[in-house]
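Re: the 237-residue chain
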Amino acid sequence: MKLVIFIDYDNLLERHKSSGILDVATTALLQTSLSPMSLRGTCHIRIYGGWYEGPTMTQRAQDLAVAIAKDFPAIIRLPCEGNKILSLATNAELAVAMMEEPDHLLFGTYRKKGKPGNLRVQTPTAVGCTDSACSLKVAKKLLKTGKCPVAGCLVMDDDLVYRHEQKIVDTMLTCDMIYAPTQDYQHLILVSGDDDFLPPVRTALLRGTPVARFHPKPNRTRSLQGIRGAKLTEKDL
């Protein structure tokens, strides 16, 4: 048996991240209905996130890579019918390239952005501030004009207020889910509650590959059913 687990890392809850990738994978596998032809198999785990800021690996990616190296490779043992045990030789990796083109790294998947253009800032007195020396007045001017109103200060709004976003990551996961059935993976497991992945899930099912989808957050809504005999399992992680 040959399995692959796709983990949307930012979709995990903090308790899942704290317990580690091995625990997340084992929890999902224990809830997945498998019909192995033998009692040995392989499981490949790919973890998706914004791992590179430009060409530089982020600190979060570095920390996660260390944790992965500590726990993997591993043998995950699953109970089967007849009191038998299925042993899966399991490895894990950060998804930094597509499965189809592993030597072509995808950089710039984590990007630091400035404040959103549609940001609105209330006047402090309008929300109940009565302190004449309140620093919120300075903050309002900073956010409104983009620069600090204090004479001689060169601080700009982007120096203090920013957001981060992932780019390319969801598309890479989608491409991998479509590619995996062509590589003899007999079962796909997706750990994500993001409905953006419903099209690749459906594509895998159309190609006859069973899929198990696990929602990190409890979710009673089930969006798809099995197609053409390929079974879809949807459960909470």
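The chain has a mean pLDDT of 88.
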